[in-house]
Specification:
The protein has 340 residues and is α+β, with helices and mostly antiparallel strands. It folds into two domains: 170 residues, Reverse transcriptase/Diguanylate cyclase domain (Alpha-Beta Plaits); 142 residues, DNA polymerase, Y-family, little finger domain (Dna Ligase, domain 1, 2-Layer Sandwich). The strands form two sheets. It has a five-stranded mixed β-sheet with strand order 2-3-1-4-5.
């Protein structure tokens, strides 16, 4: 489909009010956050859709800036390209489904496609059912089995029939969205704060002891960073990079949000055990604290474990020593193994 603006002027300002933005695949998280910041400069309501998409409500933005939706999308593209070097695809429509479907139809590295409310049926009708945002592969196969190959045909089928094909709630939702009906609002949602620490090996290693030492080092460094920022993590993500460029990644939630060495270490060891390493040649290890929140918002239970209380006191003493003499004043003994 050729990229272009289908709607302009007063009609766009009044009703084509949802913008769906797609970033390039595998965009680094820092760059993705910067794209969200650029969107927030143009619209007051932005909803992050990790890892590489986002929504914006444009009703107020169009009135404030005095431009049509296509123009606002072009402004966003110019800013992300010139400031970040990131070319995004922007779809605009009267609903989330239409806007997201439009952004997926843009060919080439980037562009803007805006759909007016009066042109929703003409836009969606010829598209294959799998092109409609929210239709998964299994649902598309079920529709194909009954001869429903395009969204226009899906829109013409009675909703009761679609419910029998896809199930009650899913069928009603698909039937409505094929007709351009999608009452979902854009909900303000920022990307949860994260913090990450990585260690690279000077050469790829098969040494399990060296990997464990590097993992312990990043655990202690990450925990210290969180405590200095007065934050706690609700989850951890471990990423292993192997020789040849392949990666392995796994995320798990902590039982309780924490920034203590013991809690993060226990979860980090569970994560690396889940990797099932045997002969993997590791070049880099990264540990990321997910869904960070202020420590004051989390109630910390009183522990009756005397050994744990002793370790927490030792942790406080270590933090004071590091604050006075530097972060490397105290490190786990195993980290003396050579990692860079």
């Amino acid at each position: 489909m050729e990229v272009g603006a289908v709607n302009t002027g007063t009609e766009a300002r009044q009703v084509a009010s949802v913008m769906h933005v797609r970033c390039p695949d595998r965009l680094p998280e820092d760059a993705y956050r910067q794209v969200l910041e650029q969107m927030a400069e143009l619209a007051a309501v932005v909803q992050a859709l990790p890892p590489t998409a986002a929504l914006a409500e444009l009703k107020g933005a169009l009135r404030y800036h005095g431009v049509d939706a296509s123009r606002l999308g072009e402004v966003l593209r110019v800013r992300t390209i010139s400031r970040l070097g990131v070319d995004v695809r922007v779809g605009v429509g009267p609903s989330i489904t239409v806007a997201a479907t439009a952004s997926a139809q843009i060919t080439g590295p980037g562009g803007v496609l805006a759909i007016a409310p009066g042109q929703v049926a003409d836009f969606l009708g010829p598209l294959p059912v799998e092109a409609m945002h929210g239709i998964g592969p299994r649902q598309a196969r079920a529709l194909h089995d009954y001869g429903v190959h395009c969204i226009g045909v899906l829109a013409s089928i009675p909703a009761v029939t679609v419910q029998r094909l896809l199930g009650g709630r899913a069928g009603r939702r698909a039937a409505d969205r094929a007709r351009g009906i999608d009452p979902r609002p854009v909900v303000p949602c920022t990307l949860p704060a994260t913090a990450s620490v990585h260690r690279s090996f000077s050469r790829h290693t098969l040494d399990g002891a060296a990997v464990r030492a590097a993992l312990l080092d990043v655990v202690v460094t990450l925990a210290l960073r969180l405590r200095r920022r007065d934050q706690v993590a609700r989850g951890l993500t471990l990423t292993l990079r192997f020789a040849g460029g392949t990666t392995w990644e796994k995320t798990r939630r902590l039982a309780e949000a924490s920034a203590h060495d013991d809690d993060l270490r226990a979860m980090a060891y569970r994560l690396i055990d889940a990797a099932g390493l045997q002969r993997g040649r590791i070049t880099q290890i990264t540990l990321k604290g997910e869904d960070l929140v202020p420590a004051g918002q989390i109630a910390e239970q009183v522990s009756l474990d005397q050994a744990r209380e002793t370790r927490l006191v030792a942790e406080e003493v270590s933090d004071r020593i590091r604050a006075k003499f530097g972060p490397d004043a105290i490190r786990p003994a195993t980290t003396l193994l050579r990692v860079s």
